[in-house]
Amino acid sequence: MALERDLQTDPPCHPRALTGITDCLTRNGFDEAKCTRYVDALYECCQAFYKKNSDEATTVSCPKASLLRLKMEQREKAKQ
């Protein structure tokens, strides 16, 4: 997945949200633990989206910037 390409889609980061996470969850009985790489990829895209456009920017594919940061922090702590 090319980050720049996914940032250019309309809406931004949508391919990672739709084809990545949704397809993985469907294939794996909605077990998020089996789809962590897709969630991480979406969050990477969303983080780049907010860095490029500001925390006030919006896209249906991403949580609000403050929630995204919280989720990324929680995921990082869970890895430790």
From TrEMBL:
Disulfide bond among keywords:
yes
Subcellular compartments: Mitochondrion intermembrane space
Q: Which UniProt keywords apply?
A: Disulfide bond, Mitochondrion
The UniProt entry, under Pfam families, shows:
CMC4 (PF08991)
Give the chief site where it resides: mitochondrion
Q: What domain of life does the native source organism fall in?
A: Eukaryota
Task: Show the InterPro entries listed in the entry.
Answer: CMC4, Cys_alpha_HP_mot_SF
**What's the family?**
Belongs to the CMC4 family.
Matching entries from PANTHER family are given as: CX9C MOTIF-CONTAINING PROTEIN 4 (PTHR15590)
Q: What is this protein called?
A: Cx9C motif-containing protein 4, mitochondrial
At the highest ranks, the source species' classification is:
Eukaryota, Fungi, Dikarya, Ascomycota, Pezizomycotina
